[in-house]
């Protein structure tokens, strides 16, 4: 936990998960219902980390209870629900932030700052590529149903879209995409490619596969997505673990073993060696190519190649809580606001629609980088 925050209360509908979480935070109050949790006066802000299809209703309830909100990506499953969430937060006078997308990561924020400085000229093209085993990690049933917020577009494109929107200025003009659904046993979108055009004339190509074969971490010095050291010898581990589950119920049990408070998440187990990342990202500007990596930003100019180093993080994903703190305690306008999260969801929905129709989808609800 970051030094500027304190975990004061917990709620989970699963008593076992709630007990495990409280073992990690024994001073936090434990609540058996969402209503009691939201009524707790010691809670200033809530972190909503529930399944995607629950985000909208729970965000509205939290806003009506007067709590500031950090809701996980994707913000919701429809633009209409996003509008409801933003309106509820506005009426209540509370901040609504959308995370924990990788556009919070320090290397991407540093790259965005370098672009904003003007030293390297305007961004003209962005390439983003990530290959993971996402589809073969244990999943709850709804995570394999697109209509309920499952598949890689809702869960993973939200990261990639957020990053390229951050670097490209935020305002996407149009989306064209194709998707892959190649495994009948995991019948949801497992891969996509998308071309985003920005209002500035810049473009971004996005490639993602969650089919668990090639792993982009091989190109990131075997540093994993959350900054941990990866073992190349563990190839195929996700599929091997999944093969031990014969039913959806057994798979859900495996999924729960990956959640907060269990042995794999004991204190110190996930302390990062480096910053989080979401695969290969290269921003081509007029006078340089910029590549955010796990310890800083590589810069490739005409005659000089350099590295802008960042100190390793002392706390995992500290940037998320820092942005929430700055909004709530210092009155700063957050980058990852409800409007920002809605714009990212619009692009994700555009990927789904374009892949379905074969047509480019115009974007209408975009916002720029503050």
Q: What kind of sheet is the major sheet? A: 9 strands, mixed
Dominant shape: globular
What is the rounded Rg?
20 Å
- The string of secondary-structure elements, in order, is EHEHEHEHEHEHEEEHHEEEEHHE
Layout of strands and helices, then pairs:
Blueprint: E1 9-11, H1 15-24, E2 29-31, H2 34-39, E3 45-48, H3 55-64, E4 68-72, H4 79-92, E5 96-99, H5 106-116, E6 123-131, H6 151-168, E7 172-180, E8 191-198, E9 203-209, H7 237-242, H8 248-256, E10 280-285, E11 289-293, E12 296-300, E13 305-309, H9 318-330, H10 338-357, E14 361-362
Parallel strand pairs: 1-2, 3-4, 4-5, 6-9
Antiparallel strand pairs: 6-10, 7-8, 7-14, 8-9, 10-11, 11-12, 12-13
Helix pairs in contact: 3-4, 4-10, 5-6, 6-10
Protein architecture, described:
The two termini are 27 Å apart. The strands form 3 sheets. A 9-stranded mixed sheet has the order 13-12-11-10-6-9-8-7-14. Strands 3-4-5 form a 3-stranded parallel sheet, sandwiched between helices. It has 10 helices and 14 strands. Helix 3 (55-64) packs parallel to helix 4. It has 370 residues and is of the alpha/beta class. The longest helix is centred in the last third of the chain and has 20 residues, at 338-357.
Short structural description:
The protein is of the alpha/beta class. It has helices at 15-24, 34-39, 55-64, 79-92, 106-116, 151-168, 237-242, 248-256, 318-330, 338-357, and strands at 9-11, 29-31, 45-48, 68-72, 96-99, 123-131, 172-180, 191-198, 203-209, 280-285, 289-293, 296-300, 305-309, 361-362.
